[in-house]
Specification:
339 residues, alpha/beta, TIM Barrel, 8 strands
Length: 339
């Protein structure tokens, strides 16, 4: 566990981010059509040990989040101004009208869950116009679970109202990122761990589930310290009442983190470190809290090769399904696990 009174020297030297510095480091945004979703696909989610459900994932085009976190790269696919009224319902209708083509999936049952991720905050009227929320609720009424995202400081009564207007159960994804006392303030997250815990308490009081995003691989820390930090944050999120902790390997490409990488303050997480963070988090949290490792960039990580990459990914997916630590895949290729 990282002691608050003993941050690393490298972390102490880490450049603090502010909104102006983060924006100055950015490149150009991609062209975004506010009337079409950015991406749609189906994926499996764990409902219970051994029980998987199909989930429709919809990345919505909308207004940019105002918090300007240092590690965020979602700004690249956001609008320059507010989301136009009517745009999000149109995007959701399009996402539900046809089976997604990316990635290709075998024909199966209709998805039971849906994620509405908008690269911003569901409770921000600039990102999700209030006038559109009844229509959005009607469109997702048939789903057993609806997952949206928002900043912990923006958790408010509108979520309880939305939860009562849908047919299934609402889950709110919150970015915790880390509880490291030096790194969190430097990420420009503009919140404290206490803010996160208070948001979870408010969601629990409204009978709404919470999901936490936790970073694996922090700037200013070496790999062992980053693994410890991820485990600490997962433990904190579970204690705050989160149903699901999603470990997100940090990545470059957002501008500000590229600058940190250039001066040696940030190194993208390796496959072994990601495996170790998942294993340690599974051991650290109660069995009723699901812990998963986001595999979005797995194939591009350092630390694995063509001979072990698929086997190691399969092991991670099996641990997700079982909610349990499994023995490492045998490696005969020179790569190694960090367990």
């Amino acid at each position: 566990m990282i002691r608050p009174d003993a941050p690393s020297d490298q972390a102490d030297r880490l450049m603090a981010a502010d909104s102006a510095a983060v924006r100055q480091a950015r490149g150009a945004k991609a062209a975004v059509d506010p009337w079409r979703p950015i991406a749609v696909w189906d994926e499996e989610e764990v409902a219970a040990p051994g029980e998987m459900v199909d989930c429709r994932v919809v990345f919505l085009a909308g207004a940019e989040c105002p918090f300007t976190c240092a590690m965020c790269d979602l700004w690249r696919h956001t609008l320059a101004g507010p989301t136009p009224p009517g745009a999000l319902p149109a995007q959701i209708e399009a996402a539900l009208a046809h089976a997604p083509a990316i990635p290709p999936m075998a024909a199966g049952p209709d998805p039971r869950w849906i994620k509405l991720y908008n690269a911003s905050n569901f409770t921000d009227p600039r990102a999700v116009p209030v006038v559109d929320r009844p229509r959005i609720a009607a469109l997702v009424e048939r789903f057993e679970r609806v997952i949206v995202e928002t900043h912990p400081r923006l958790v408010d009564d509108s979520l309880e109202h939305f939860a009562r207007s849908i047919g299934g159960r609402l889950e709110v994804a919150l970015g915790l990122e880390t509880i490291h006392p030096v790194i969190l303030p430097r990420l420009n997250k503009q919140m404290t761990p206490a803010d996160f815990a208070a948001a979870c308490t408010r969601l629990q009081a409204a009978d709404i589930d919470a999901r936490a995003f936790v970073l694996v691989g922090l700037p200013g820390l070496d790999e062992p310290a980053s693994i410890d930090a991820a485990i600490d944050a997962a433990r904190f999120a579970a204690a705050a009442g989160c149903r699901h902790v999603s470990l997100i390997p940090t990545r470059s490409g957002n501008g500000f983190f590229d600058r940190l990488a250039a001066d040696g303050s940030f190194v993208p997480v390796t496959a072994g470190a990601a495996e170790a963070a998942l294993a340690g988090s599974l051991a650290a949290v109660p069995s009723d809290c699901l812990v998963t490792l986001d595999l979005w960039d797995w194939d591009r990580m350092a630390g694995h090769c063509g001979r072990c990459r698929a086997a190691r990914r399969a092991r991670i997916e099996q641990m997700h399904r079982a909610r349990a630590l499994l023995p490492p895949a045998p490696l005969d290729c020179g790569c190694r696990h960090e367990l």
